């Protein structure tokens, strides 16, 4: 091994699979997006493979057009609470927006999930791009990219104050004296900031892992700065090894500049593995899914991402030369640039680009045998491009089962992945330390009991 250590692997779950046409396959249940038993089954499959965590994305709007794919999205912290009861070890990461929530309510939801699950919760912090979302929350315009990240920073600062508003030993539970808790060990945030005013302490104590793991998924300049300061895991998308290596090096450097241990920031690109007994079989599945795409739906979403009218895109022509630049985009800046670069680097028509995006929306798609998939993951890890991966099965549950039953054993045989869980919390799975309480860590020893 050229780089020691083991991979971190998450199961990124999305209804019947990440490929937009997965629901059209004979094996798929088009109603599975609303079936809790379906998600419990996926959770058990992932835990069977000893994966680090489950991950659920979220957006406060109907995602694209309902004709395109299953569009029901159960609120992720509610769904993960159900999955916590169906599992024992696997981490539980939910997406939630800092633009369309309030710190107290959201911190309480994640603290609840963390306590119910025994310390397995993580929060994927997003600022939420898209005007449609803004219009669902009393706004006529999307807040600027910079404003969303400034708001997010204060939101996270307040959330940490809330999670740390109890000492670990604040609960005394002394029946003899009739004292349940020590009021002196409660620390109300008393926060007054630009965006938020939060006076009182959270009505929940710290969890087994201290507080939820902080995850972040933006790769723009603002996103990278935010991740370097706050994130303990970073979900990202890259099409090439060199791009992934450059991102990895840059983010680790930025984390160090913030005085953080770079090893405590896990970088986890997404990959959509299409697995077959032979490479030809994997390619056939890829081709079948691409054939089932209805491009008229994808065209609208692509145009929105690029900041152009759908009429400016021709399916059988390349991307227009005069697309808006990244700095003109207030939505998903880094994803826009990734997709434009992909289309231009490979000379794809819009139709071909839509086909490439159908499985992972910009994440790397790879078709091959179990050995080839394992080789790909190991190569990126050894090349300093990733600490692990978000596994985005194109079809569920079959794609996740194939990964767990066919790829994971290869990685385990190579010493690249755990054979058993050695910890109980998500922090332990990610080899992250339990954070000290920010209120007590800086207090003089004489004030501590």
From TrEMBL:
One GO MF term attached to the UniProt entry: monooxygenase activity
Luciferase-like domain: residues covered: 34-385
Pfam families per UniProt: Bac_luciferase
Superkingdom, natural source: Bacteria
Key words of the record: Flavoprotein, FMN, Monooxygenase, Oxidoreductase
Record-annotated membrane-spanning stretches: none
Family as reported in the entry's similarity comment: Belongs to the NtaA/SnaA/DszA monooxygenase family.
Protein name: Monooxygenase
Source organism of the structure: Actinoplanes campanulatus
């Amino acid at each position: 091994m050229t780089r020691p250590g083991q991979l971190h692997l998450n199961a990124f779950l999305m209804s019947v699979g990440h490929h937009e046409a997965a629901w059209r396959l004979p094996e798929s249940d088009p109603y599975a997006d609303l079936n809790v038993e379906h998600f419990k089954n996926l959770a058990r499959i992932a835990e069977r493979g000893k994966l680090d965590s489950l991950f659920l994305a979220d957006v406060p709007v109907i995602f694209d057009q309902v004709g395109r794919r299953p569009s029901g999205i159960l609120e992720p912290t509610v769904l993960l609470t159900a999955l916590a009861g169906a599992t024992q070890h696997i981490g539980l990461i939910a997406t939630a927006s800092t633009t369309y929530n309030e710190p107290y309510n959201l911190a309480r939801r994640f603290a609840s999930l963390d306590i119910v699950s025994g310390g397995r919760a993580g929060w994927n912090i997003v600022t939420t791009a898209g005007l449609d979302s803004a219009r669902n929350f009393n706004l006529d315009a999307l807040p600027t990219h910079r404003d969303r990240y400034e708001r997010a920073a204060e939101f996270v600062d307040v959330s940490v104050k809330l999670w740390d508003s109890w000492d670990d030993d604040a609960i005394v539970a002394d029946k003899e004296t009739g004292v349940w808790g020590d009021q002196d060990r409660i620390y109300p945030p008393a926060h007054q900031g630009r965006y938020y005013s939060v006076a009182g302490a959270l009505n929940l104590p710290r969890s087994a892992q201290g507080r939820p793991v902080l995850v972040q998924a933006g790769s723009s300049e603002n996103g990278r700065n935010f991740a370097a300061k706050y994130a303990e895991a970073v979900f990202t998308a890259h099409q090439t090894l060199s791009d992934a290596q450059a991102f990895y090096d840059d983010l680790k450097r930025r984390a160090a500049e913030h005085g953080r241990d770079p090893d405590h920031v896990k970088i986890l690109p997404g990959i959509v593995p299409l697995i077959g007994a032979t490479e030809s079989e994997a390619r056939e599945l890829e081709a079948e899914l691409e054939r089932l795409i209805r491009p008229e739906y994808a065209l609208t979403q692509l145009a929105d991402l690029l900041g152009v009218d759908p009429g400016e895109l021709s399916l059988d022509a390349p991307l227009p030369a005069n697309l808006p630049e990244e700095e003109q985009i207030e939505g998903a800046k880094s994803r826009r640039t990734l997709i434009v670069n992909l289309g231009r680097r490979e000379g794809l028509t819009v139709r071909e680009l839509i086909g490439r995006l159908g499985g992972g929306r910009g994440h790397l798609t790879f078709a091959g045998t179990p050995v080839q998939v394992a080789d790909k993951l190991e190569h990126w890890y050894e090349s300093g491009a990733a600490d692990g991966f978000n596994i985005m099965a194109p079809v569920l549950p079959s794609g996740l089962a194939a990964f767990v039953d066919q790829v994971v054993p290869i990685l385990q045989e190579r010493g690249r992945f755990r054979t058993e869980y050695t910890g109980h919390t998500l922090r332990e799975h990610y080899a992250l330390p339990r954070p000290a309480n920010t209120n007590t860590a800086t207090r003089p020893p004489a004030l501590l009991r």
